[in-house]
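Q: Could you fold this chain for me?
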Amino acid sequence: MEAYEIIKKPLLTEKSYAGIQAKVYTFIVDKRATKTEIKKAVEKAFGVEVAKVNTAVVKGHTKTQNTRAGRTVGKTSDYKKAIVSLTEKSKPIAFFESLS
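A: Sure. Below is the predicted structure, expressed as structure tokens.
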């Protein structure tokens, strides 16, 4: 897989904003990607040195909606997130630095 096929988009939450100063970034990645593939993709896409990658599969939430026809139940999609820590000597990722 290409680097941009593995990394889908950045995950921007309050917790991920707190990690930007410590060079810890969060991405939504392809479910089939391994930690080593994610590490290589981030290094290639952003030109940085990755120290460590943690991953978690986030289960989708159940949503209910009341309509005239009755109650409908749906579910949001599951996704995999990767928390990427950079090395001390690595440069920060410019996209995240513009947010803080």
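A (continued): Strands lie at 7-10, 24-29, 50-58, 62-67, 70-75, 79-86.
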